[in-house]
Structure formats: C-alpha cells, structure tokens
Amino acid sequence: MGRGASANDRQYGNSGKLAARARLHQLHSRDEAPWFPWVAARADLRPGDHVLDIGCGPGWFWAGAADALPGGLHLTLGDLSAGMVEEALSRVRALDRGWEIGGKVADIADLPFPDGTFDAVIAMHMLYHVPDQHKAIAEALRVLKPGGRLVVTTNGLDNLRELYALGAAAFGVSGRDPGAELFGFGEAEALLRAAFGNIEIHLYPGSLHITDPEHVFEAQTSYPPGEDAPESQLAALRAAIAAAFERGGGVLDVAKETGAFISRKPA
Question: Which residue has the higher pLDDT, 11 or 163?
Fold first, then answer.
C-alpha cells in the first residue's frame, strides 16, 4: 500500500499493531456515539446488498456495528494482507448474523471484480496507504452498481493533535496526523467529488480523555518512527508524555477530527 513490503507486513500482517492504537479509543473515548455504529448509520446498507469492505483489516467494523446492520448482506472482506482477511473472516462469521461472507486478498487500485458488482464499497481509514488514490477511487466507482455508494472514512490534519505533538517533541516529525497528510479531508472531498459528481460529508463528534500514560506510549511506539526509535528518543517520548499528563492534572484530553465521505454512482 504506501509502504515497503517488510514494513507493511510488520504493521498489517495481523492486528497487533492496530490494537495498540485502538486501545486508546476503546478505553478513553468521550464520543457522542460509538464510531462503528455511527458509520453504519450513514452507510445506508440494506438487506440483500452486496458489499465490499476493502482494507477490511481484522473485521472490527462488522463486529462493532453488527447490531446496527441489516440481515441478508452479501459481504466480501478484502485486504492486501492475507492474515487480515483470515482474521476478519473468522471474526465476522462468528457473529452469526445470517450474512453471506467471503474473503479475498485484493488491492483497491486493481480490484478483481467485474463492473457493477456491489451495492456499496466501504474503505475505512485506508486510502492514505494507497499510492494512486485516483485509481483506487476509479476502481471503486467501476465495481459499484448504478446508484451504489462508496463510503470512505479518514481524518483531518488536526486529528489527535495533542498526541502527535508528543511525537513531534520526541522524534522531530511534523506533529500532524500522518495519514491525513497523505489523504485527509481535503483530498477525500476533492477526489470523490471529481469521480462521482456528488458527496455527503459527515463529521464525527468525539474526543479522548486519556488517564493512562502507558497507553499513549504503546500507541506512539506501534508505528514509525516510534516503532523503531532508539532508546534516547523513547526516553524523550516518555518525558514528553509525563509532562503532558502533569500539565493536564493526570489526564490528557485529545481532540478527534475524523469523518465519513459518501458518494453515489449516478444511476
């Protein structure tokens, strides 16, 4: 996807690295609504829909939103990582929701499906990994049926800015959401609108209220540059985290900037 093969395998061969980052949201969120059901409510999936979840990861969306989704879905779980597809299939099949479920190792920029296959394509927080985002969105458009919808989620540049400031202090990086620097709100709106001619933008109301500094450290060291940082930089990171919690009276409040961008293929 946008990394070399070895780095990509280390990050996404299984869900371990993702879990360290997800823990912050699972344990410390102060959101008006849970993220996965919130996305599901806007995806407008209907009984009988054929759905492609590309970049499905470990299938957390389907497990987290199951109660908000209809029965009768024909679901294809796709990812570049065979390990992720296997984990997602196991997790989603165990839900026993009456869905028809299949899996496919697949690249969004070269989808192995005929034109007009799906009623919906879901691409959640993954297009910033894709080198050719124009081609990826064109492929999603191609495999959608007329009237079908593409659901993309991504972050804005100010997402988790208080956390990324810690990385900037320790590692000398930009201090902005690295995924959003590659495919943020501006890119999502421009590319989807250009390809589909229409777009709905939904901004997610949420924040973090973090009470455990170790969870911040684990998240910051689950991806580059913290993942491979030398001990001197890790010590600087711990010092920056400790100072931030001291300023916050033992907590770290963090703003989220994330959303869903939805476009429909003209009928």
Answer: 163
